[in-house]
Hints:
Clx_II_MBL; six-stranded mixed sheet; Metallo-beta-lactamase, Chain A; globular
Amino acid sequence: xxxxxxxxxxxxxxxxxxxxxxxxxxxxxxxxxxxxxxxxxxxxxxxxxxxxxxxxxxxxxxxxxxxxxxxxxxxxxxxxxxxxxxxxxxxxxxxxxxxxxxxxxxxxxxxxxxxxxxxxxxxxxxxxxxxxxxxxxxxxxxxxxxxxxxxxxxxxxxxxxxxxxxxxxxxxxxxxxxxxxxxxxxxxxxxxxxxxxxxxxxxxxxxxxxxxxxxxxxxxxxxxxxxxxxxxxxxxxxxxxxxxxxxxxxxxxxxxxxxxxx
Length: 262
Ligand SMILES: [Zn+2]
């Protein structure tokens, strides 16, 4: 699989992706915000967009659908309970989406919104590394917010049951570039985290278009939402929440609450 990532230079800091089969040159436009830009990118690389997939229904993840559709005729797919204009197909948890040699499994990951899906491309004979397209569920150094129709208990469940078990080598492709800010939050929660400091320095001067691709193994080293057992994280939370238990769910929810106001 070839992945083309474009930073959209908008205030919400979206990433748009084209996922392409290197053999058939067919592509999926994932969460297009600027549809014309995605169509131009596909043309520039000799790719044919055959499918539009939206991880969820928020406007900044679907706004480019009409322009991509007008130029390519590609249908819009999203979770079966999503209500997205012109949606042609409802994705169910566990569905396999195949295009050329690409095989992606849909993970239903409610939390940011009830209908959110992540796409997982396991390692295969065509692609040595697993890839996770995480939309607004898992970000570099953070979890997505639950403020716009979401539910933090669902987010916790999605993390624990579906994302945390994925292999360390999985490459992470989030829906937004929030890494620098999120690393600041990670260090606020865990000031002694050497990997968070290291990556904060590494990306301090990096333009958004060149932000590094991280693996889940790396994320586990600094993302507080993947470090729920860490004594420093729990001790820090207890300064604000003296009665906090060390229960994973309670730690996750307290982190999310602080991040909402950070
Ligand atoms: Zn969203």
